[in-house]
Known about the structure:
The protein has one domain (3-268). 77% of the residues lie in helices and 0% in strands.
Amino acid sequence: xxxxxxxxxxxxxxxxxxxxxxxxxxxxxxxxxxxxxxxxxxxxxxxxxxxxxxxxxxxxxxxxxxxxxxxxxxxxxxxxxxxxxxxxxxxxxxxxxxxxxxxxxxxxxxxxxxxxxxxxxxxxxxxxxxxxxxxxxxxxxxxxxxxxxxxxxxxxxxxxxxxxxxxxxxxxxxxxxxxxxxxxxxxxxxxxxxxxxxxxxxxxxxxxxxxxxxxxxxxxxxxxxxxxxxxxxxxxxxxxxxxxxxxxxxxxxxxxxxxxxxxxxxxxx
Length: 269
């Protein structure tokens, strides 16, 4: 198989594995670009668009939830409207801040050292939050008060620093605001849908011409999309079961070890 397509498959696997784990998919893709020695800026839009494959996995796995919410909206059921309200409120901060700081975020995407430090600091933060959080009052997405949902949305914005992890920031923000683990994880899955759709739309507007380039043509994007979709399907259910029983500490330790290893490697190149 051509080396280019092997790279595409590898990036699809990395995306599918890491999009919903609190380890930062963007950070891993940036480090992968350094490890493989290709031009990360050329593949920047590809890395964003293949995230839609992982997002589709959420839609497929939770289609019953989305169907129930949709039917509930038509019947004007309060719980369905609160579910939709909470997703929209949590999405708004990232939409506003993402648009305002897009150019600065682009600069950080080319800094693997930032990723390495963010992995370490984020891992330590997860360990501290897990130890500190005791009260878990909210056991359903629709049950979370609007003001706390806004707080979760604001915390998610920290993930604009590559290496922080969108899912990790969302989950930890939810835990700090009284949401139990499984609900926090599932909220991060659902919130990924408008967040990543918005990020992809912005990339298409700004860099749509790259889609026809040799590096990130439609065939590459389609292959990366399919691979990330399949891998994410396998990861999501496993992740929910794991955190329900064991919490997020295993991912925190992984982040710390991976961050240290990345710093050592980057320092010896």
